[in-house]
Amino acid sequence: MAGHTDVHMLSVPTFVNPIDPKEYAVKPVPTLHEFEQLWAAWDLVTKYMIPHEELLSKPIKLRNCCLFYLGHIPTFLDIHLTRATNGIPTEPSFYSSIFERGIDPDVDNPELCHAHSEIPDSWPPVEEIVEYQEHVRRRTRRLYQTKLEKNVKIDHKIGRALWLAFEHEAMHLETLLYMLLQSDKTLPPPGVRPDFEALAIQARNNEVPNRWFEVPSSDISIGLDDPEDDSSPDRYFGWDNEKPIRSFRVPAFEAKARSISNAEYALYLEQTNNNKLPASWKTLTALDNTLPETISEFKEISGSKPYMNGASKPLTNAFLNSKAVRTVYGVVPLAYALDWPVMASYDELTGCAKWMNGRIPTMEEARSIYNYVDLIKMKDTGEVSAQTIPAVNG
User: DSSP letter at 305?
Assistant: First the structure.
């Protein structure tokens, strides 16, 4: 059209992490660039998404306050670098006494708790913790740069320390975000907010049946052999519970193509009169004025079709309009998140799966599913359409 102009808004990501193992796990030891990307992600969450006045809050009551994790991550890295290099701890060295290990209670009985670092009467100032963090990062950078300048290969002892600290920080990034989802005070990350309504319509338009697939019997291996010494050639490292390699024979079984969705879980709750919501959901109140006034016009994607075996009724508007799903961008109407995998506890998912005439797969069965999907992809590379075989989620 003459005189018509389109304006496209672009947002540069703060960090970029590849999702292909061939790119993000090329070598056993993470590169300095990978550490820098991880640090950028950690800084985005801890410096932009947690209000300063909320650093001492506990979104999950059985855990430490948010401030603890700001000190825990660099302290853990420094402890393992000190051990691996026979070096001197970064000052303040007493941080290891309060930041080494967090609270890890038994969920069913909080009175039972693993050993953890002492909890001080008052935590160090956040400015001091951030300064300490930067000193530890500089120590890490110097280690990489020294090895590069001298063209010396990182030995297994130091490599293990770097890998251990890298995976530890990545895992805590995930768990910290899960904690922040349960707080109403969490700030959204900088950048463009996703258009959740448009994404929901796109998902529903591209929807394929969540059918059952027969997964044939197979022999699988889980774990890896990783002797903690320098006697063997380059190899990937593993946590204690990943060692050694174990072999299993998994009988044939059937599995749904996708994991349990919010829509399926919502039907389960409503039709069983279960009022206990997962921690990732929220019942809307009059204070949630940032949500659309009504989503009745969204009815075409709200669950007018049965999701189970043909016997289930659709969700009622009363249930649908009163629930939302927590995200780092704030709560999102359930109607916009029906196709997302539900985030709930093991016991909650077990109840839903039983209601759906199924059960939660075992770890070995889950691995068998992934192996089977990989086999299908290898056989049909370039020929399998996403419209005919849904993706499998863990």
Answer: S
